[in-house]
Amino acid sequence: MNIFQARDALAGVLAKRGRPALLVQAPETSYNLGLFPSQYPFFENIMVVIRLSRGGSKKRPFYNIVATDSRNRRDGRFIERIGFYNPIASGAAVGFNINQDRLAHWQGVGAQLSPTVERLVKSSGKKAA
Question: Are 79 and 66 in contact (CB under 8 A)?
Fold first, then answer.
């Protein structure tokens, strides 16, 4: 069975279920695939958000600042870790650290900051000044 026969078979199955197959042009191929664009990650428009991901143990929170798809769970899969926040840091321990270069990169490509991360970034900017 070649790719065209597979495409036609899949389109028939989807049509029986009431879901028409969309013919999309895949960038790396020269033929049409009878599949939905959501099955190819390069067709998806994802909303990237920079937010806190909780770690640590019970009553001892520790948060990683991560860039992630907004549909992922809070503590689930993420694209990149760009910093951390330790709300119970005391003494010489560092309470907040973020890679400004990576933060600027993600904001440059359209990532949105969560309200808490935005507040932390603003407060750290005031301390540094």
Answer: yes
Give strand ranges (E) for the chain. Answer: 24-25, 32-33, 48-57, 60-69, 80-85, 96-98, 112-113
If asked whether residues 71 and 102 sit together in one domain, one would say yes
Same domain, 67 and 93: yes
| pLDDT tens, residue by residue, 59-107 | 999 999 999 998 899 899 999 999 999 999 998 999 999 999 999 999 9
Cα atoms in the Cβ-side hemisphere of radius 13 Å centred on 109: 13
Please give the structure tokens belonging to residue 115.
Answer: 């309200």
Is 121 a member of any domain? no
